[in-house]
Amino acid sequence: MTQVKISADRFGPWALVTGASSGIGREFARQLAANGLHVVLAARRTDTLAELGAEIESRYGVRHLAVTVDLSEASGPDRLAEATSSLDVGLLVSNAGDLTPGEFLSLDLRHSIDSLQLNAYSHLVLARVFGRRLADRGRGGVVLVGAAGAEHGIPWLAAHAAAKAYTNTLGRGLHAEFAARGVTVTVLAPGPTRTELQSRRSLPDSVGMTAADCVSQALRALEAGRGMVIPGVVARVMNRLPASLTRRIAGRTMAAAAAQESAR
To answer: Tell me, which fold does domain 8-263 have in CATH?
Structure first.
């Protein structure tokens, strides 16, 4: 993998990465640190954040701040804003998210509400809070992590896909608005990506691109000022297929994963 260079002057000195404890978020933290940015690491797992913080400080000579926060709680974004109030944050990577395949009517309603909070509402609030701070600076960036094909709807993952579709749409709209303030907004809409989450949710872990390649493409798009990036050939091809076909394909995958989750 070739290291993607982004402008530390535009997007530094600090970057904030939510969902930093694993997968795409962890890789964002590593690649941003490799660009010389100090990194705020936000997630629910304190011990994992401490390990990652020590790693990037030792390897890249940058500083880090670990913030333990649950963004599925309504107070999460405000707590994160308060924890970073003294830092000059030039880049927000709003990546925190989770999914649990299952039949909508069988899942607890609270689960679907929490999914909406985590996968949509938290992105909205963080984009607003940090967007204002970036606009006052007159430069910076926001990466919102949505999902490829979410607008098509995904059976056995309906609430999650709906929340991700909101994030996709929010980011595309903000791309134009924030550009007038000198701030770049890029939506990262990944398809299947080989991460801990994919394995943990009984999804095929041999399918998809690596987190490193996914993040490299996202940073390349951010540096170029693009409004959206769908990394990976498979995801881009799927995104161009008729919605009815992608729903059928994705639905079969999620139904199988839901059955395995139920059996466990």
So the answer is: Rossmann fold (3.40.50)
Could you tell me if 191 and 234 are in contact, meaning their C-beta atoms sit under 8 angstroms apart?
Answer: yes
Q: Could you tell me the strand order of the sheet in which 89-94 lies?
A: 64-68, 38-43, 14-18, 89-94, 140-145, 183-188, 228-229
- Per the CB < 8 A criterion, the answer to whether 8 and 62 are in contact is no
DSSP bridge partners of 15: 39, 91
HEC sequence for 192-214: CEECHHHHHCCCCCCCCEEHHHH
Element (H, E) at 38: strand 38-43
Given the DSSP bridges, would you call strands 193-194 and 209-210 parallel, antiparallel or unpaired?
A: parallel
Name the pTM for this structure. 0.91
Instruction: Examine the pLDDT at 203 and tell me if it is beyond 70.
Output: no
In the three-class reduction of DSSP (H, G, I as helix; E, B as strand; rest coil), residue 24 is classed as helix
**What's the N-to-C CA distance of the chain in angstroms?**
36
- Residues above pLDDT 90, as percent of the chain: 78
**For 46-50, 63-67, 245-249, which range has the lowest pLDDT when averaged over its residues?**
245-249
**Nearest-angstrom CA–CA distance, 15 and 37:** 6
Question: How many Å apart are CA 35 and CA 51, to the nearest integer?
Answer: 19
Query: Is 55 in contact with 33 (CB distance < 8 Å)?
Result: no
Q: What DSSP assignment string belongs to 40-89?
A: EEEES-HHHHHHHHHHHHHHH---EEEEE--TTSTTHHHHHHHHTTTS-E
Domain boundaries defined on the chain: 8-263
Strand partners, 18: 42
Measured CA to CA, the distance from residue 242 to residue 223 in angstroms comes to: 31
